[in-house]
Amino acid sequence: MEKSIHLHPGREKSLLRRHPWVFSGAIQQVKGEPAAGDTVAIRAANGEFLAWCAYSPVSQIRARVWTWDPAEEVNIDFFRRRLASAINLRRKCGVEAGGDAYRLVHGESDGLPGLVIDRYAGVLSVQILSAGMERWRETVFHLLSELMQPDSIYERSDAEVRRLEGLVERSALVTGKALEGAIWINENGLMFPVDVAGGHKTGFYLDQRSNRKVVRNLARGRKVLDCFSYSGGFTLNALVGEAESVLAVDSSADALHAGQQALERNQLDATRVTWLEGDVFQVLRTLRDKGETFDLIVLDPPKFAPTQAQAQRAARGYKDINLLAFKLLNPGGFLVTFSCSGGVDLPLFQKIVAGAALDAGVEASFIQRLGQDVDHPVGLYFPEGEYLKGMVVFVHTQ
Ligand code: SAH
User: Mapped to the 3 state alphabet, what secondary structure does 1-33 carry?
Assistant: First the structure.
């Protein structure tokens, strides 16, 4: 008997628009007793075939689409084709010209739901985030060895979202050389240490690569404040761009230590940088109370709102730090501000930043919109793939 999911009448609409998720509320009946990760047919209420999907019995996202083609089989060749296509897209975009660290696979937007693969020099860092992809785990590792010949593959399936899929967290070397210490990567000519086994996400915030160059180009002669600096991606670029000084703030001592190592390795002038371990919300207030000012401020906070339900609270957090930043900026200064919250879209983020400028009493203009780099494609039918929003704001001299 065919394993299949039958939708309530009318609930096929999002699938006809090629959105790759089937939510539990859309489902009328599940036939054939599929297990977690099984490939099932999705059918409209009238029985019409819509797609082949992976079944995930405990998740709100009950199924994720593998293919819309009724004749396409989900097997090792399917994964070989999809992985090869993701790898080729990066080649076509010339991603390697920007260094040896980039996202090789960006989940749904690369036709591989639940799979994230980042390349850090010779190491592939893999996140498996859905029951469907978990089923094909060994196949994916086998194909990665075949297609990429990495020195090592490391699995970082320790993201919390795995629990929503009924999966346990896992973080371990899969194959190849054991990782001893940090992997050094090259990003636009700068070297950074990446702790593939223990760093945030898969080890580094690759999505900011092109935006770090934007900061590099704005930094000359400026007094810079890099908030939520992690290992100093923006800080080091500001230095290369001849910033007068940089204050880097992060709550993670390990991240700041990595930044210091990077500074040394790149032989940059350490006397121009101060690394400050602290809570940005507090530090901004302290700087304001001391009457300190800056000419360029970067705000790159962690995710405040993974989903729309948390958007209200997140909005308050963004408003708070952006308002404080505007108060600390000298006239003629730049604010480079980001949100990586899926639950906060660009219009909302822009409204929050405009509200913060208004309350701070400054005249300001957006001069550039920023987003994730080309190795983080966004499926046109999958707006959720676009999570990083940013803008460069110029504060007028009145
Ligand atoms: N700008 C960085 C990435 C920032 S990720 C880059 O270019 O690589 C978010 C960072 O915020 C993390 O390093 C995390 O340690 C830090 N963080 C989270 N909450 C914080 C807080 N309240 N105060 C300071 N840092 C915080």
Answer: CCCEEEECCCCCHHHHCCCCEEEHHHEEEEECC
